[in-house]
């Protein structure tokens, strides 16, 4: 006997359909943001005042008909302003700050690169749902690696030196005097380079298991003239070499690890007396229901496509996910042997913890 069809609340259905249409537009528009970033369309409009499609196409050496359609889509999305009287388009300064200024703390195109990579990786993740197998970071679309660096770097630049390091117990003073620092899971090395620039008396080693990221980081450090106090090595969080580090840092990566407890124990074994472990993680509350908001939506979605598969591809496969929350992270860190764990700082997008022996 077929189950009875539940009565539908038409008001609720229409509200959901409106939300879905908004989401469809946002998802489709993501590709246009990537195009605008790659072709320099946003940068060409920044500070230029009202422009016609032909003017923008000429300035960027692109096709006017494509540019006109791109502009209209951006205007419909609220990314660009349109003046019907003059039939011109303008990039408001607030949007320019987020779309055309690479070192802006609000810079967004890197996030859209991540989204594009996630969409291209959908068949692989769909298969992982069926099989339960993991998908390592190195198995993803290469755009993910550059997009991640471009997305996270402005946030680190805005907070790391000014707020996060000063929130640690005595570490800023030690860095100014000179200590050894290990930046684990360093990716393209943005965090390592920011610290090296700020604290010239200290030396830094960036570790990541992904060889292509380490190659990128090495070149970036060389171009920045920092090779004398930064080295980068391919190594995993549970086995990176060295000891007597005054500071060990993990930026947005502990939850990606298959065995974060094992990583915690290894960090403890490599710290100098009086040293600290700084753990930067995505902002999350401890209860699922408290994360059901726009920020949680982004992090849960990224975690489904990137973080959880990465952990499942490694030994143990604890799969904390990007919304683990402070209580769960405290368990992991203290199980690794740390006696002290505290929240040192936070932003709307990050939690910053300090652990010590």
Could you outline the blueprint of secondary structure elements for this entry?
Blueprint: H1 10-38, H2 41-45, H3 53-60, H4 64-77, E1 81-83, E2 88-90, H5 93-99, H6 109-120, H7 122-131, H8 143-164, H9 171-177, E3 180-184, H10 190-198, E4 203-208, H11 211-223, E5 230-234, E6 245-251, H12 260-270, E7 271-282, H13 294-312, H14 326-335, E8 340-346, E9 350-356
Parallel strand pairs: 3-4, 3-6, 4-5, 6-7
Antiparallel strand pairs: 1-2, 7-9, 8-9
Helix pairs in contact: 1-4, 1-6, 3-4, 6-8, 8-10, 12-14
Task: Explain the overall architecture.
Helix 12 links the parallel strand 6 and strand 7 (271-282). With 357 residues, the chain is of the alpha/beta class. The protein has two domains: 22-101, Winged helix-like DNA-binding domain superfamily/Winged helix DNA-binding domain (Arc Repressor Mutant, subunit A), CATH 1.10.10; 152-161 and 168-356, Rossmann fold (3-Layer(aba) Sandwich), CATH 3.40.50.150. It has helices at 10-38, 41-45, 53-60, 64-77, 93-99, 109-120, 122-131, 143-164, 171-177, 190-198, 211-223, 260-270, 294-312, 326-335; strands at residues 81-83, 88-90, 180-184, 203-208, 230-234, 245-251, 271-282, 340-346, 350-356. The mean pLDDT is 97. It starts with 9 loop residues before the first helix and ends with a strand.
């Amino acid at each position: 006997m077929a189950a009875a069809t539940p009565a539908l609340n038409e008001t609720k259905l229409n509200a959901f359909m409106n939300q879905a249409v908004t989401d469809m537009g946002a998802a489709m528009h993501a590709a246009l943001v990537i195009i605008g970033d790659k072709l320099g369309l946003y940068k060409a409009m920044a500070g230029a005042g009202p422009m016609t499609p032909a003017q923008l196409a000429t300035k960027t050496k692109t096709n006017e008909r494509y540019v006109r359609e791109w502009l209209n889509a951006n205007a419909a999305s609220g990314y660009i302003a349109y003046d019907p009287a003059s039939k011109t388009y303008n990039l408001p300064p607030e949007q320019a700050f987020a779309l055309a200024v690479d070192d802006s703390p609000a810079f967004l195109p890197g996030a859209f690169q991540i989204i594009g990579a996630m969409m291209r990786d959908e068949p692989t993740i769909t298969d992982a749902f069926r099989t339960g197998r993991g998908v390592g970071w190195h198995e993803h679309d290469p755009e993910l690696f550059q997009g991640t660096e471009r997305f996270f770097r402005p946030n680190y630049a805005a907070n790391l030196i000014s707020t996060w390091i000063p929130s640690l117990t005595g570490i800023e003073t030690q860095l100014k005097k000179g200590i050894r620092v290990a930046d684990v899971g360093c990716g393209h090395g943005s965090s390592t380079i920011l610290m090296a620039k700020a604290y010239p008396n200290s030396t830094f080693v960036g570790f990541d298991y992904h060889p292509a990221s380490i190659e990128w980081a090495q070149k970036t450090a060389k171009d920045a003239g920092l090779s004398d106090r930064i080295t980068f090595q391919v190594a995993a969080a549970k086995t990176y070499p060295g000891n007597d580090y005054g500071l060990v840092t993990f930026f947005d990566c502990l939850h990606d690890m298959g065995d974060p407890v094992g990583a915690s124990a290894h960090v403890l074994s490599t710290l100098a007396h009086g040293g600290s472990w700084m753990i930067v993680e995505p902002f999350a509350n401890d209860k699922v229901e408290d994360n059901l908001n726009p920020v949680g939506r982004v992090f849960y979605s990224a975690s489904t496509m990137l973080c959880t598969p990465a952990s499942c591809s490694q030994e143990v496969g604890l799969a904390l996910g990007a919304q683990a929350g402070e209580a769960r992270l405290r368990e992991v860190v203290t199980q690794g042997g740390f006696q002290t764990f505290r929240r040192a700082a936070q932003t709307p997008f990050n939690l910053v913890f300090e652990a010590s022996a």
